[in-house]
Structure formats: C-alpha cells, structure tokens
Amino acid sequence: MSHPENADRRSFLKQASVATVAAGAIAAQTRATQAVDERSTKSDRLPREVWIATIAQEGLRAASPKQMVERVLTRMRSAANMRPDVVCLPEIFPCSNLDKPTPQVDQVAEEGVGPLIQPVAQFAQEHACYVVCPTYTKHDDKCFNAAVLLDRRGKIVGEYQKTYPTVSEIDSGVTPGPMRPPVFETDFGKVGAQICFDIEWDTGWRQLRDAGAEIVFWPSAFAGGRMVNTRAWQNRYCVVSSSNKDVSKICDITGEELAATSRWHTWVCAAINLEKVFLHTWPYVNRFGDIVSKHGSRVHITTFAFEEWSILESRDPSVKVADVMKEFELLSIDDHLRAAERSQNQRRPG
User: Fold this and answer.
1) Residues 23, 48: Cα–Cα separation, whole Å
2) Could you give the CA distance from residue 117 to residue 97 in angstroms, rounded to a whole number?
3) Which residues share a beta bridge with 347?
4) Contact at 8 Å (CB) between 277 and 332?
5) How far apart are CA 311 and CA 149, in angstroms?
6) Model confidence pLDDT, tens digit, residues 322-342
7) How many DSSP H helices and E strands does the chain contain?
8) What is the dihedral of CA 147, 129, 277, 275, to 10 degrees?
9) pTM of the model
10) What are the backbone angles phi and psi of residue 310, rounded to the nearest 5°?
11) DSSP 25-80
12) 316 conformational bin, left if phi > 0, alpha if psi -120 to 50, beta if neither
C-alpha cells in the first residue's frame, strides 16, 4: 500500500518533469526565432545572401544507422559555428558506410519524423537552419529514397523522392518517385533536389529550372565530378552536392566551385548571393558601362569571355537586379533564348 505523501511526491515530480520538457521546448523555439531574427537583421548581410553548408561522409564508419546519424551530427555541429541557413547531407546517409550489412529498406524507412530523422530535426531547431536530410521514407506501404527538407524549427517542409533509382535499389524495395520534382519555398528562395543516379537524366534538372528553383541539392553516393558543375551552368542555378565518399561541393550558377570538401576538410560552408541574373553577353554588354556609371560598386558584372556569359549581381540592398534589368532593357538568358526561338519559328519554312 502506497503512502499518500509518496503519491503526492510522484505526482509533483511528474508535473515538474512535464514542465521542464515544455520549458526546454519553448527555450529552443525562442533560440531559433532569435537566431533567425538576428541573421535577417545583420547590417553587413545582403538581402538575398544565403549561407550553405555541405557535409562529406568520407571516412565515417558506423555499426548501425543510429550510430551513423550521431557521427554525421558531430560534423554538422562543427559546421553550425558558421551559422548556415541550410545544411545538406549525403544520400541515405544513416544507411551508408556501415560496418555491418545494410538493413532492409522497409525496416528503416520512416513515416514522418521517425527515430533517424528526429535528431536531425532537433539540430535544425537548435541552430535555426534548414536541413536536407536524405533517408528512406515510407508512404502507403511504398518505400522511397528521399531527401526530406526540414525547416528552421525542425518541421518537415516536404520531400523529394528519387525519380531514377538504380536497378539494385528497385530490387531492394525502393519505389521510383514521381516524374515531376517538387520545388519548395524557403525564407531565402526556391529550392529543389535530385539524388545520385538522377544526374544521368536531364528531365528533373530542367523541370526544376522551369519551376523557378534557385538552389538544387544533390545528395549522392558518389561525387559526380564535373557533372555537378555542368548541371549548375546548364540550368543557371546553384547546385550543392553532398556525397557518401570523396568530395562534396557548392557550385555557383556559372558552375564555378565556391567551396569543396577534401581529406582535410570534411565539411564546407560558403555564401551565395541570389540577387543576380545570368545574361547572354551580347548585345547587353553595350549597356554595362551605363549601368556601372549609375550604380558603381553597388553592382558587380562578371563576364566569361569565351562563353559570352555575363552575371549581373547586386551588392547593395537598395539595388534590385529586376529594376536594373528593366531600366536598361536587359533580358535574362532564358528570356533572350525564348525571344530568339519566337523569331526563328516565325521565319521557319513550312
């Protein structure tokens, strides 16, 4: 028979424990909100400056998916010192580079925030950043190789499901995802994803460009090499790779590498400026002098001589690229090519 005082004490401790958990959640939410506010009001930050971190899984080994998540989180915590807006992780990283045989897909696939995603979601909340978290997911008894996007508060924004899994993946229980990849709205711009083998097909990359994606994340089992840079300049958006082995990197819209991992650096973090536009140099080069005369160092124009590409970039919060283009009658390369196609089609015989 329990003593009434003991029952009261147990009740008190239970209530205190619940209160402590609630207070911790509120504190974490407050820290996330403060970090977002501080980041957005920093005076020396451009309005569309985005800090991106990518993690390499090279050199990491683990005995289980849970242990691998913890080891990747160690690298993520080091990168968190750079206060990234978004962190990209490698393809199905909890189940990669394991010392023991890879678990069956249906045994590790999660619905919603499961035990493998939860620690990553907690990281996203604690550090007020988005995270591209690739893992196996399950929907209606179908399993997918997916890239789950977590927001700054650790909530799921959505997921991209690998469109083109390999034959061995399909044989292991992975279902191919939809043919049209989603584009996700974030507080810094529109983003999308492709995964590993998807790089061999043009379709998804082009669809993401047409849908307005500004950054595309590419979690992968291999590094991809020049293919990653090519997908960036072909589609005029930033491409961020994160690989289970070798190098992970951040490529600007011209395909240039802004940062890359190595044997010495297992994660990198770099800033990109989304307030820029990709131009065909001719004939708009004729207006570049006028633009510089008016705006000076508030804008930056970079021309790639042999490709005849030019990048018009705002370096001042008061200057919007769209306004400069309208004032000086410039067209983005996509609009420039569409205008050429209309003219070609009008004059084409038959």
Assistant:
1) 34
2) 18
3) none
4) yes
5) 29
6) 999 999 999 999 999 999 999
7) 10, 15
8) 170
9) 0.88
10) -135, 145
11) HHHHHHHHHHHHHHHHH-TTS-TTEEEEEEE--TT--BSSHHHHHHHHHHHHHHHG
12) beta
CA distance 299 to 121: 38
Distances in Å between the alpha carbon of 190 and those of 120, 193, 235, 274, 312? 22, 11, 14, 10, 20
Reported as a single tens digit per residue, the pLDDT across 26-48 is 444 444 445 445 554 455 788 89
pLDDT at 12 (0 to 100): 42
Helix, strand, coil percent content, the chain, rounded in steps of 5: 40, 25, 35
* 268 and 82 Cβ atoms separated by less than 8 Å: no
CA distance 121 to 250: 23
DSSP calls for 248-297: -EEE-TTS-EEEE--SS-SEEEEEEE-SEEEEEHHHHHHHHHHHHHHHGG
SS3 (DSSP) at 321: helix
Q: Two tokens at 130?
A: 């988005």
* pLDDT for the residue 102: 83
Cα distance between residue 203 and residue 181, in whole Å: 9
pLDDT of residue 38: 52
Looking at this protein, which amino acid is placed at residue 309?
W
